[in-house]
Fold each of these.
Amino acid sequence: MDIKAIVSQMTLEEKAGLCSGLDFWHTKPVERLGVPSVMVSDGPHGLRKQEEKVDHLGVNDSIKAVCMPAACATAASFDRALIGRMGEAIGDSCQHERLCVVLGPAVNIKRSPLCGRNFEYFSEDPYLAGEMSAAYINGVQSRNVGTSIKHFAGNNQEHRRMSSSSNVDERTLREIYFPAFEISVKKAQPWTVMCSYNRLNGTYASENPWLLTDVLRKEWGFKGYVMSDWGAVSNRVAGVAAGLDLEMPSSGGINDKKIVEAVRAGKLDEAVVDQAVERILTINYRYLENAKPETPWDQEADHQLSAQIAQECMVLLKNEGVLPLNKADEIAFIGEFARKPRFQGGGSSHINSCKITSALDAAEGLKITYAQGYSVAKDEATDEMIAEAVSAAKAAKVAVVFAGLPDSYESEGYDRSHMAMPACQNRLIEAVAAANPNTVVVLHNGSPVEMPWIGQVKGVLEAYLGGQAVGLATVRVLFGDANPSGHLAETFPVKLADNPSYLFYGGEGNEADYREGVFVGYRYYDKKAMEVLFPFGYGLSYTSFAYSNLRLSAEEISDRDALTATVTVTNTGSRAGKTVVQLYVGDVQSTVLRPVRELKGFEKVELQPGESRDVSFTLDKRAFAYWNTALGDWHVETGEFRIEIGQSSRDIEVCGTVRVNSTVALKQHYSMDSIFMDLMADPRPAQALKPVLDRIAKGFGPSPDQGTTDAAKEAITDEMGMAMLNYMPLRSVLSFSHGMIDEAEVQSMLDELNRA
Ligand code: BGC
């Protein structure tokens, strides 16, 4: 299709019209020119296609669809191929349902356990979030259906989400909040990007030219179109100019008119409107020309796929010999979630599931007794419920309590105010654990919870919000038909107050200051060597693994070279299983504040008992770099870097070092205010100013006319003198030289240095 030719035939009104939705879910058609309308739909872990009453909060019904595990779960799989398969299935269902774009993945960083939408987001780690997101996008788009990676950017809280400003310094944006988007754009080129509701450093994301054009398009090379989150537009004309192509949903014609007026008044270049229309139509036709509504959608097959995905995501957090369960034993399933699992979160991602399999359904035929334990609707556990649960627990070999967060505890639209589980459930778990020493807790939640009972139970399985087949997956894992292999994509702190954003999360009024900077999640807990409940990357298996023989391809590289790290991984247990090999990099010594370690590679590997395999990672400049604001670029400081490989961020099994030499000279500006220490540390001024500095160093000391006693003079040792001298600016050491050195001479040396 010749898109440019279509655009050239459109009137200004038609073009302005195309820059906003027809209604809640469609783009506008231009019937005169035969341009059809296309439909978009939520997303991300299944379809929320609404045919009648529409909304963006998950209130009204949508078609029956398959609810796959939410991102909190899929991230824990650390499995790119797996989430790619999920993307393919979702892409196929989009084709079947005539959808051009599925609204996801949602990749915002989990800055605090409190964010109401954490269940929809992948991780506290930007690399993991980016890799999982790119794999999902590639999966969906392999079916000629688009994605909309969201919410760009800095949308890490629900509180005041449409007015709050996320105030984040540039280095933190580049290192923590941008990479999931950047990796996705570079590796998967999403058809669309959805800008967020919030402001970023004072400017709405929907009208931020630096964000939507300079960074997204010019730096990263994004080629698709940008759409607004639903209702995220404040100043539409500023938005068009900034690079926001499509406003969603419809603006009722109001903003279309404003675009026309702005062009007529010479305030907005018509070429910018043309460009937006061209981008939207390019994507629409990419779908239209490849539409395959005859694609079958086998929902039963997707239900089975969803179970398979869920079992790869579950994280075994604790197991003191109690799991896997024996099918011949009598087991008590306790808690309403065993019968009615919580498997998805609330809001725009809410799916009208075609089928739900609970753990009780899945365990049919086994020796299971059931006690409700608590009521989700009433959020209470009566004495009778507890008594019934205790007697079921006493009669059973093992008691499995299905617990977690009810729907009302976490959802799009608001944040949590604490990290606790319902008090009634904690009480139930303690009572059951007191009645039966073999107690296991299965958790359904979208974000970390505090576990006051952790010392009283023998097993904990984090099932997250595992999709509509979560019960099937849970029973397979509990009874050992599947070997758990999920690892945490987020830290579980001991308590909420330990979280680095604790003091500032939510902000004051509309100002949310990200004062913890780059120290998000394990980057903070590791820097402070804090005790955590479960660390990032952690997860147990029914087998065991050993990592050995780390080989680095070089001892020394330049920042233009790649380094290969290879490790041998062995299944040392008696069952087949999967391990998540994690590679972290840490700068041994740095002049800027950096995390102890950062995830720079991971691979999920399946091994038979006794089997060994080599796993290799390639590290490039980015793996060693931090964002240097003065340079406006990634920078590697020359020096040693630790390469750590392990089974979690706190379980490093092998470690090596490499020296990386920078090929970029950081240009410093020196003045009379520059301090001695900095001048001496940089070879250029150290050499240029050497004679002067030597004279100053020699002459350094109190002047005779200050009446200093000999004893005091002796007390000023060389070391102390140097230490004091270190922090002095050039101007004050000059004055201490008692006229020995000519200021003009030093100034001209400085000018020379700064010119070079
Ligand atoms: C959400 C988006 C969603 C959109 C459409 C918004 O409220 O933030 O994630 O895609 O609604 O439902």
Note: The first strand starts at residue 40 and ends at 42.
Amino acid sequence: MEVKVLRKVLDVNDTIAEQNRHYFEKKGVFVLNVMSAPGAGKTTILEKTLTSLMPKIKCAVIVGDICTTNDADRLSKSGVPVIQINTDQFGGDCHLAAHVIQRAASEIQLDGIDLLIIENIGNLVCPAEFDIGEHKRVVVLSVTEGEDKPVKYPLMFRVCHTALINKIDLLPYLDADIQLLRNNIAQINPEINQIELSAKTGIGFKEWITWIEDQIKLYQKTRNCA
Ligand code: MG
Ligand code: ZN
């Protein structure tokens, strides 16, 4: 019985996610869904990412948290339009669902925007199950979280196109085995693109920024051909 109910919820979600994707395509906006456990460094990565991309690439951000506008306050300092979603108004959901993004997207001016980044709620589990109408998915995993996380939370790593391995500046102080971590990610998803970086020092950002720019170019090219 419970399985049936969940399937129905996800069917409705997928329908709205498709509507979102059509809307984003009409606006010519490439959409990235960025996910991770709490504290992996999504917001710090995004602060640096926005600074690197602007003004060449026009960005907007939707950020989800259960409570507080802390992340939106930090990200709006970069001068990009930011909308904060607090899910405690919707029963405290621990993920962003397509209908919540639909509403947020209608409130943000997307004309002239090239890239919409959605910072999902810190959680390695259910955000992976909810299509929100994005084009590509990114998971952030920091080296402090343990090498076994990809095998413990396989769905997240299976559905993502890029894995950002963050906080590599801390490696000299940890017993973390980064090769084991990379192998565990590759074991779950051999196709995933892995980038090691540090949002603190900026190492690895060149590769990450290039990946985003390539994705936007590819998206705009296929859009022009359609
Ligand atoms: Mg955050
Ligand atoms: Zn959830």
Note: Helices lie at 2-27, 42-53, 70-76, 98-106, 149-152, 154-159, 178-188, 205-225.
Amino acid sequence: MSIESILQEVFGYPSFRGPQHDIIRHVVAGGDALVLMPTGGGKSLCYQIPAIARQRAGQGITVVVSPLIALMHDQVGALHEAGVSAAFLNSTLNSEEAYQTEQRLLRGEITLLYAAPERVTTARFLAQLDALHERGQLSLFAIDEAHCVSQWGHDFRPEYRALTVLHERYAGVPRMALTATADALTRADIVERLQLEAAGQFVSSFDRPNIRYTIVEKKDASTQLLRFIEREHAGEAGVVYCQSRKRVEEIADMLAQAGIHALPYHAGLDFKVRQANQNEFLRGEGVVMVATIAFGMGIDKPDVRFVAHLDMPKNIEGYYQETGRAGRDGMAADAWMCYGLQDVVNQRRMIDESPAEEDFKQVMRGKLDALLGLAEATDCRRVRLLRYFGEESTDCHNCDNCLQPPDVWDATDAARKLLSTVYRLHQTSGVSFGAGHTMDIVRGKLTDKVTQRGHQSVSTFGLGADYTEAQLRAVMRQLIAIGALHVHNNEGFSTLHLTADSRPVLRGEVPVRLRQSSSQRPDKRSRNRTALAPAAASLGQDAMVRFINLKSWRAEVAKAHNLPAYVIFHDATLAAIAERSPQSLADLQHISGLGTRKLEAYGEAVLAVIMGESHTVSAE
Ligand code: ADP
Ligand code: ZN
């Protein structure tokens, strides 16, 4: 059976996307592969189709290594729905269940087996693989989330390092490593650590054109977030990322009080609560998950309409991975971040205070700088993001800066006044001060602290009286971002210090250009969703009624099967059915997302819903 017919019959898709075809051909033929594809690009098919093809050719099972234990149940459920024999082995199974699965594995009844890396490398599991290997029944290893092998990635998991055993023990068995994010350094590390020097490298474009990037200046973050959700995403599913557990709780409460169906998720919550909240997010409609970065890897919910960052991530990889969880279904989605001076200070401090080696810290600082550059940018955000991943592009017309080019002001003078105040303060008093006090002096404010210390006599006092505090704050942020000011943290006090890069700015040799604070400008951006409207937006009235009926039918099926609704059918598939209004099984042919098995299992029921007949759902 050809890989084209597997795509059509098993998954119900008419054609391959991007480089899927090349990758699948390469792996089916026994090649190793490194696959870099953005989130939502369609990585799963890249190993699922080879697994099916090779199994049908008598080559045995595929082992999928994944760190995402909590999601294996749904992933395997989705394959079952498509009629593919799959199973998982992880710590959620009791010993009897695990034993049964192992037996099925040894009997060759499984096409894809999902397992966590720590399980794969146990002596017990390797012995089972040995047995399969001896019989020529070990077909392929797919190592998902492969960036976990690298400490340069954003989610290093030491267990991944032990996976070299697969190569050493089963040299002839093809391996593929897949990840949605890797800069050049991480990529090289994956190749080295997983010994993929001879593998084919398949790097897709990292662009996610349906995601709109927006970065706003932080003022009152919770209010800004609430307004963003209410104005642009009322009733829609989204993820809000916060730095700390405490903040997750606060923001989830705040949103819930405002009437939004918001739930918290962080590693400090009881496992059961976490699991329940994740299930609610996956299975419910329009749930907003407020979370630390502990949440999200492998979440393949296709209709997440926004990802919001209330605090700045550590680097662009993290930002891109997290924002990538929006809009996997290809429809319009938002990546929204609000960011302020404190974020810069906090992230720098976290690096400074970490116990890591200095050269490691240097790499981390470089990565943080790249993200700061993105946040401060006045040109196309997407061009910068893609360039970071080694891809050149042109203005995207779907980011805040493209849609509404920011007004820029020349902040060189303000920057010089701030820096020279830092310099003079240190000179006159021998100690350093923080951002607030420094700005007060520049603006000529006679605060208690100023008068007590006699700082009104500093020669720069009041020289920047024309600047607002918000403006000076922005200048300060930019100076820290470009490394012309250093924030030193000592027992809870942050003080400002000049650096080697301060001098050219002080001399006026480096111009400082800043975006005009966004609050000073009217919001001109319009929501133009017609091009990428959500699945059902273009349906007429009758079709809309059918779509709604199909959705409620789907909800019952999903519940009976204990799976998220999108595993049964995507919205887009239901919308296509509603549009076509099929009168017979033949009319259901060739609807995207409707493979042979689903047609058999659900065809009649779907027709009944379309004809307005009552329906019952069995739990089979
Ligand atoms: P990734 O793992 O790369 O984030 P997935 O494998 O979850 O992406 O795929 C994202 C979505 O795209 C899924 O809903 C999947 O069913 C769909 N998809 C993948 N390949 C195709 C294709 N060739 N045609 C249509 N839809 C596809
Ligand atoms: Zn742009």
Note: The two ends are 28 Å apart (CA to CA).
